[in-house]
Design brief:
839 residues, alpha+beta, five-stranded antiparallel β-sheet, five-stranded mixed β-sheet, 47% helix, 11% strand, disordered C terminus, Tripartite_DENN, ABL9/DENND6_dom, DENND11/AVL9_GEFs, Transport protein Avl9-domain-containing protein
């Protein structure tokens, strides 16, 4: 294809527009009573007010955006409609303002009308094209900062010189050479793709469908830049926004003509021939990067069919259904499509999703947080130019495919008119719903009217990522969805939260266990103190609990040591008394022996008495026959059956013995003899008193055997009483030692004599008494029965005694000579002692 001279695509050349308008500078102040107002103009004749001449009543509100007081410096971008004049038709102007604030106390000269603590002002630059906003923004920031640094707002020399420099550049044509080039400084496509990912393509398609698009964000500069970045994806649109300030403007279409030539080496010629830019801001459309609330009436006007506007006021969010078909929330990075028909048309096809995912992946792979506008690889892939060329290729493919779609519809019955290398309808890869919706818009009508019908001959009608769904698409889709979920970040946050909760739980559990352990220790200490106090207050109760609680050997050993020492002292005292009694008895017995002449009248004893065993002689009970002894044993067995404790001997249980006494009838009785607690020592009634009681009955001296038996009986009784008292003291003073074994002492009637059998055996051995008549057995049996009866009476009369003493050794029976025995029998025969006193 041969090249041809380029055909202008708009009615007003950039040179003419440059000659018509000179950039203006103004100062907007926020008055505490009147609100925002234009304070001064630079670049106009003295006495002229462009705001009043062009009806720019909303200029102060556009310059001072809502929420600008929250930042030290903020920028606002807006559009102004310059009405028709005698020199030029109505057109759109573009303004950029830099807002700053400072403390009123820092002013060198504080005016009287400054009543607030802060002073807020904006420096505004108004130009005829947003193409240079990138460079203009940096220069405006420096000038505004320098003016505020003076701390004297009446000195505006720096602002005047700044406007003069802008006008001088315009007159010299310093910017004329770059008018055909797109300037994108400050409009980052990488950030746009990074934040919205695959929805970036949705936003571009939405712009082509010309709905009511509302952007919301708390930061005004970011809000405006996102809109400029989005419309900059349509090649050449930033240089042709002369109809974007009002819905009544339609200068672009009026001066637009259909291109008839093409230079393939010239990119601008190619774009113009293909019908670009797609003019989305024509009649009935509006573009307001920042739109204050005072401009809502224009949005709700019947003549306003579509617009792209931005707002920082959250009141619009409450009326989003009324003022928007699609809401883009930049604070939350969300897109909300409120129109049902629009939502169906914006569904991406498989090829669309594959294409935008490819761009998104390249941006993410080359992302640098330190410099978001430049790839970290410093390469071409993923850069701003790479993204723009990808979207330019997509739009050219879309235009070509839609033209071929129309061609197929026109020549559906003529296969020769179809392209042989193109299968089917390539517009399906862009979405049939979208193509049908786009065909009903104003920008499609303008494009289709002013372009050739065979554009598919210049650009191949095929989607850049044409093809059906493949496994790679599914894998890439899943990967991106997983990345969109931010599982790593959520898991990291969840892990951090879980770690904090676990640490707090461990700390709480440790605190709880420590407190529980401290409480238990305090409880134990309190119990221990109470136990010690109880031991001090009630030793007896403490000893009983100690005995029932498991026989604490250590405590028992200590306590028993103290108790045994007391008992030993008591026993020693009783033994000393018993020894004194025995010594006194021995002295008394020796005197009686000498006075009575015991042992000297052995030959004068009566044969009758000695043979019969009666008469109450001393030998009456010593010479029992074998039969009598058997009877005696049987009676003893009977007594043992009545008393189970009889005959049980233990080292800690006292036993009882008895001595035999006789009366004139030859009856034998057993006098209980209780063993003492000491070795050979007795306590109780004095043996001298016993002897005295016996001597008071008869003038004749009592038998030594009788006296000895009574003495032993009384001594044994005294020892028993003393031992019982010692045992009682031991029980009262016991603390933790186990209680001693207590055994009831057998009654005197049930006691088995331990001394008399020894004396009887001694008499049998010496031949003093022999059984002379076996016929006396019956008489002995009768006597034995009487004796058992007496014993039962005596046992009932005498209370049982409990003794807690060690078993003492047996006291040997003293050996008597035959003469002493005979003398004792003769003295016993003279008195009937047994019948009167009793055992």
């Amino acid at each position: 294809m041969t090249s041809a001279p380029p055909t202008p695509t708009n009615g007003t050349s950039p040179t003419d527009r440059a000659a018509l308008f000179i950039p203006l500078v103004s100062v907007v102040d926020f008055h505490h009573a009147r609100g925002p107002e234009v304070e001064k103009w630079f670049g106009v004749d003295e006495g002229h007010d462009p705001a009043a001449e062009y009806d720019w009543t909303l200029l102060p509100f556009m310059a001072l955006s809502d929420g600008a007081h929250a930042a030290t410096e903020d920028f606002s971008y807006f559009t102004l409609l310059r009405p028709t004049t005698d020199q030029a038709p109505a057109t759109s102007l573009f303004g950029i303002s830099c807002t700053r604030q400072m403390d009123a106390s820092q002013l060198l000269v504080r005016p009287a009308d400054v009543t607030r603590s802060t002073v807020q002002k904006a420096v505004v630059v108004i130009t005829d094209s947003p193409q240079y906003f990138g460079t203009l923004r940096e220069r405006l920031s420096v000038v505004t900062k320098a003016w505020f640094a003076q701390r004297e707002f009446t000195d505006t020399e720096i602002l005047r010189r700044f406007q003069e420099s802008l006008a001088e550049e315009k007159e010299r044509g310093a910017l004329h050479d770059d008018e055909d080039r797109d300037q994108y400084l400050g409009m980052s496509l990488r950030e746009l793709v990074r934040e919205f990912k695959w929805q970036t393509l949705v936003l571009l398609k939405c712009c082509l469908l010309q709905p009511k698009m509302l952007f919301f964000g708390s930061r005004c500069e970011r809000l405006c830049m996102m809109q400029f970045s989005l419309i900059s994806l349509i090649p050449g649109l930033l240089r042709n926004l002369q109809d974007s300030a009002g819905p009544e403007l339609d200068n672009y279409e009026k001066k637009l003509s259909k291109p008839t030539s093409l230079r393939t080496s010239d990119r601008n010629s190619l774009l113009s021939y293909m019908g670009l830019p797609l003019q989305i801001f024509g009649k009935g459309s509006l573009f307001g990067p920042y739109t204050p609330l005072q401009q809502l009436d224009i949005l709700a006007d019947f003549g306003t069919k579509s617009y792209i506007v931005g707002s920082t006021n959250s009141l619009l969010l409450q009326q989003k259904d009324r003022y928007s078909d699609i809401l883009i929330n930049l604070d939350e990075d969300t897109i909300n499509v409120t129109s049902t028909s629009l939502k169906a048309a914006l569904q991406l096809s498989v090829a669309d999703r594959r294409w935008i995912d490819f761009i998104t992946q390249n941006v993410n792979d080359t992302w640098d947080d330190a410099n978001p506008g430049r790839p970290k690889t410093m390469g071409y892939v993923g850069s701003e130019e790479f993204i723009r060329l990808q979207f330019e290729e997509y739009l050219l493919s879309l235009i070509s495919s839609v033209k071929y779609h129309s061609h197929l519809a026109r020549f559906a019955h003529n296969p020769k008119m179809l392209l042989p290398h193109i299968e089917g309808d390539p517009s399906h890869d862009f979405g049939l719903d979208f193509v049908d919706a786009w065909a009903r818009t104003e920008n499609y009508r303008i494009w289709d009217t002013h372009t050739d019908s065979h554009l598919f001959d210049v650009v191949e009608p095929k989607h850049p990522c044409a093809g059906g769904l493949t496994i790679d698409d599914v894998q890439r889709r899943i990967t991106q969805q997983v990345q969109e979920l931010h599982l790593d970040e959520r898991f990291a946050q969840g892990k951090e939260v879980l770690g904090r909760n676990l640490a707090a739980g461990r700390e709480k559990a440790s605190t709880m266990f420590n407190k529980f352990y401290a409480d238990m220790e305090a409880l134990r200490e309190a119990q221990r103190r109470r136990a010690e106090e109880a031991k001090l207050q009630s030793p007896t109760a403490s000893s009983a609990r100690g005995a029932a609680g498991g026989h604490n050997e250590k405590n028992a050993g200590i306590a028993s040591g103290v108790d045994l020492a007391k008992a030993q002292q008591t026993v020693q005292a009783v033994g000393a008394k018993a020894g004194a009694f025995m010594n006194s008895w021995a002295t008394w017995a020796g005197e009686k022996r000498k006075a009575a002449g015991w042992g000297k009248s052995g030959g004068s004893e009566s044969p009758t008495a000695s043979n019969s065993g009666g008469g109450g002689g001393w030998g009456s009970g010593w010479g029992k026959s074998k039969q009598n002894r058997v009877s005696q044993a049987s009676s003893d067995d009977t007594a043992s059956e009545r008393d189970p404790m009889k005959g049980v001997k233990s080292p800690r249980m006292s036993t009882s013995s008895s001595v035999m006494t006789g009366d004139g009838g030859g009856l034998h009785e057993k006098v209980p003899l209780t063993r003492g607690a000491g070795r050979g020592s007795f306590s109780g009634e004095s043996l001298l008193e016993v002897a005295g009681s016996e001597s008071g009955i008869s003038s004749q001296p009592a038998s030594p055997q009788y006296v000895r038996g009574r003495a032993l009986s009384r001594a044994s009784g005294a020892a028993t009483a003393a031992a019982q008292q010692a045992a009682q003291e031991q029980q009262n003073s016991a603390v933790s030692s186990p209680a001693p074994v207590l055994a009831p002492a057998p009654t005197p009637a049930a006691a088995i004599p331990d001394v008399i059998p020894e004396v009887s055996e001694a008499k049998d051995a010496s031949g003093i008494r022999k059984d002379e008549n076996n016929n006396e057995g019956d008489k002995a049996d009768t006597k034995e029965k009487e004796q058992e009866k007496r014993k039962s009476v005596v046992a009932a009369a005498l209370p049982a005694k409990t003794i807690v003493l060690e078993e003492p050794p047996r006291m040997p029976t003293p050996e008597l000579t035959p003469a002493e025995v005979a003398a004792a029998e003769e003295a016993a025969s003279a008195q009937s002692v047994w019948g009167k006193d009793g055992p």
